[in-house]
Amino acid sequence: MPLFFFGTLMDPDVLGLVIGRPVAGAALESARLEGFRRLRVEGASYPMLVADPEGVVEGRLWREASAADRRRLDTYEGESYERVPVEVETASGERLLAEAYLVRPGRLRPSAEPWDLAAWQARFKRHYLAQGEALVGAELP
Fold first, then answer.
1. What share of the chain is helix, strand, coil (3-state, %, to 5)?
2. 7-38 in b/e burial notation, b at 16+ Cβ within 10 A?
3. Could you tell me the pTM of the whole model?
4. How far apart are CA 22 and CA 17, in angstroms?
5. Fold category of 3-136 in CATH
6. Distance from C-alpha of 65 to C-alpha of 99, rounded to nearest angstrom
7. Span 70-104, pLDDT tens digits
8. pLDDT tens, position by position, 35-84
9. Which residues are paired to 59 by β-bridges?
10. Domains of the chain, residue spans
């Protein structure tokens, strides 16, 4: 099943760092998820999704994840997030089931601030990538 990314993993450099191999930007296709909005996690630079019947979240769909990639992503996302099936729509209008990492109930709190990938990249990406494995965690399988 494809994976739907709505946060830092939409960036091919970040995804490649997490899974331990390069990912071409073309491998991440535009998709959208209805029924949610994206907010910054309180006290953090990354986002979470919050249910919103009127909301739509633009993200990226990745169809090429291996079992090893999923294990590394699960470890990276940690105990606060879980992979959950969601229905997304691609730019071409295809509707399909994908998995997204949603916050487990009661684990994290959203701020009131919407989260934007370009703003995150401008402010945090360089530092994030410079930290490399220390931020991702050397314990990734």
1. 30, 40, 30
2. bbbbbbebbebbbeeebeeeebbebbbeebbb
3. 0.93
4. 8
5. Hypothetical upf0131 protein ytfp (3.10.490)
6. 11
7. 999 999 999 999 999 999 999 999 999 999 999 99
8. 999 999 999 999 999 999 999 999 999 999 999 999 999 999 999 999 99
9. 31
10. 3-136
